[in-house]
């Protein structure tokens, strides 16, 4: 069964998770970190910042690959995931901004990048060229999606252009002033097959609204109906939960 730990507070969860990340990059200071956005990893990034500050770890030679990025937002938009990583990880640590990779819809029109599909395929190749991800941070959606791999996504999918499901648009509206019409309808996302190639994975889930998805991920069949269930097939994954998310376990 997929190993999981239930924490009494978000702070305790973040401390353990950040300590795990720090251990990976103390051992491999030029390794590759897979980043995630949203509310789940925020406290982890803050704790990582404190660990860097006291010299417990350095990220200055680490490369990062973000899971996904919206299509349709202008460069530098406050809700773009590049902006999120710059403000919530780069600004808090010694991570070099030049080492931060995010799927880039704005590459379309560059040599060899005629379409969004080309931009997605190029990102997948960039991850491989970097040697793959050593540690991948994940969250989970209330419908079981990871990154923007919505229910129904093939379990062997590669980085691709995806349409956001109505539930995801509703969930993410809180980042756009509660206005669902302002949430982009497409993204470029690492696929489930891409994510599964990470050497180690840590997934964070907090809140009762994640409880059914967490149950299905851990105890349900491996199925595109719950994309996160594919993690049952990964050899090195750990799940970090609060009491609400663990309610059905």
UniProtKB/TrEMBL annotation:
Species in which this protein is naturally found: Mobiluncus mulieris
The GO terms this record gives for MF are:
glucosamine-6-phosphate deaminase activity; identical protein binding
Q: What is this protein called?
A: Glucosamine-6-phosphate deaminase
Q: Which InterPro entries does the record match to this protein?
A: Glc/Gal-6P_isomerase (IPR006148), Glucosamine6P_isomerase (IPR004547), Glucosamine6P_isomerase_CS (IPR018321), NagB/RpiA_transferase-like (IPR037171)
GO annotations of cellular component type? cytoplasm
Q: Which Gene3D superfamilies match?
A: 3.40.50.1360
An example GO BP is: glucosamine catabolic process
Q: Which PROSITE patterns match?
A: GLC_GALNAC_ISOMERASE (PS01161)
Question: Any keyword Acyltransferase?
Answer: no
* Leading EC class: hydrolase
| Highest rank taxon of the organism | Bacteria
EC number, UniProt record: 3.5.99.6
- Domain Glucosamine/galactosamine-6-phosphate isomerase: residue ranges: 11-233
> Which gene underlies this protein?
nagB
What keywords is this UniProt entry annotated with? Carbohydrate metabolism, Hydrolase
